Amino acid sequence: MTFFCRTLRRAGGDGASLAVRRNGPQPVHAALRTAIACVGLGVATACTGSLFQSKAAPSSVYLLSADLGTRATSPAGLTIPSVAGPLAADLAVLRPRIRKGLESDRIAVLYPDRRLDYFAAARWSGPLDQVLQDLAIQAFHSAAHLRNVSAEASAFASGYWLELEVTDFQAEYASAASAPTIHVGLLARVGRAGDRQVLASFEASSRQPAVGNRLTAIVDAYERAVDGALAEIVANTTHTLAGALEHR
């Protein structure tokens, strides 16, 4: 069809034949150009949709808080010393060290085959080291009687320091059909800044079952497990500091 039309044009002068070409069926190459343009428009529309109209569900952000006064269970055999006034101790809570796989703002889940994963579309309010440091300070403010508790980057900025290592901070499933149990495990060291001496080392562990397999119930169990572990940390640290001040 294209060759026939070009032949008529070279023969020249025949306006009727040109009129037939203009008014007749659209040439193949013109139709192809139109089809390509339509396809290109469709691709552009699809790309624009994927960039600016994401169908991914936004993440829910969960904020934990430490409340040793109402939720925490007292550790077996441990009580926080009762004193007339605050202990004359300034404690720096260092940024915790986090076990590999837990060092992010994602909410970890451990399956029966020991496979570590994370809940979809859910995260903590910050990286876990920052979250735990803040929770530890809240716990000391609510339950301990120290002159000052603060977050420090250095172990030697205050009179005493507390270093935490997070070994467990995950929801553990015994089976796919059951609700998980939250496991929070901490290692702690308390030291004196002046001579860099470690005064005590201890562990704290807490397990709390979630009442349901919903994120709200799971986060609630996380808070109870955190409170239980931090109650042990606060009690042991306060005992250690009280003894250090007595024998100073």
Task: Note down, in words, how this protein is organized.
The protein is α/β, with parallel strands linked by helices and 248 residues long. The protein folds into two domains: 2-52; 60-246, Rossmann fold. The chain is 37% helix and 29% strand. It has five helices and nine strands; from the N terminus they run αααβββββαββββα. Strands 1, 2, 3, 4, 5, 6, 7, 8 and 9 form a nine-stranded mixed sheet that branches. α4 (128-143) packs across α5. The radius of gyration is 34 Å and the shape is elongated.
Give me the secondary-structure topology.
Elements: H1 2-11, H2 15-23, H3 28-52, E1 60-62, E2 87-94, E3 97-98, E4 106-110, E5 116-124, H4 128-143, E6 146-152, E7 160-172, E8 181-192, E9 197-209, H5 215-246
Parallel strand pairs: 1-5, 2-6, 2-7, 3-7, 4-7
Antiparallel strand pairs: 4-5, 7-8, 8-9
Helix pairs in contact: 4-5
Rg over CA atoms: 34 Å
- Mean pLDDT across the residues is 80
Helix content: 25-40%
Strand % is 25-35%
Discrete helix count: 5
The number of distinct β-strands equals 9
Give a short overview:
By secondary structure, the protein is an alpha/beta fold. The chain is built from 5 helices and 9 strands. 37% of the residues lie in helices and 29% in strands.
Structure keywords:
single chain, 248 residues, alpha/beta, Rossmann fold, 2 domains, 9 strands, 37% helix, disordered N terminus
